[in-house]
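I am hoping you can look over what I have pasted underneath with an eye to the fold:
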Amino acid sequence: MKNKSFRQLWIGQAFANLGDIFYVVGLISLIYALTGSALYLSLLPFTTTIFRFISSLLAPLIIDRFTLKRILVLSQLWKTNLLIILGIYITNFNQAFAVVALIFIAMISLLDGVAAPVSAALTPQLVPKEELIRANGFFECNHPDNLCLRVATWFCFINIHQQ
């Protein structure tokens, strides 16, 4: 893609999605180490899904009131702040951490649920109509599910070669 704005959006989204994978994997291992509970582990994807769904219902109300760029920047800024606070709170590593982590996950998921449709809505504004299908394909490669599969494949590949 020759469009600089689209390329910056795509690269920023790629790093955000990759960071999300590492934060979720880290939280999963931390919560399990703390609690040893499958209940808390099952609450993690449940909380993420429910709060992304809620924010996707609220997203049109926000999108109508503010510019897309402002929504994306502010949601990512708030998400970064929440992750920093969560990282600081991890140093107090105790049993109550699992509950607090779920609250942070809920807030982060609310922000993600708004940021995802905004990124998709920005694409047609940044890319000429002739390149829109290609741009959407680039964004689909960036989807967190695809990134998870790639990261898992890398870890399997590394594990196989270490044996």
The chain is about 85% helix and 0% strand. The mean pLDDT is 78. Residues 51 and 107 are 8 Å apart (CA to CA).
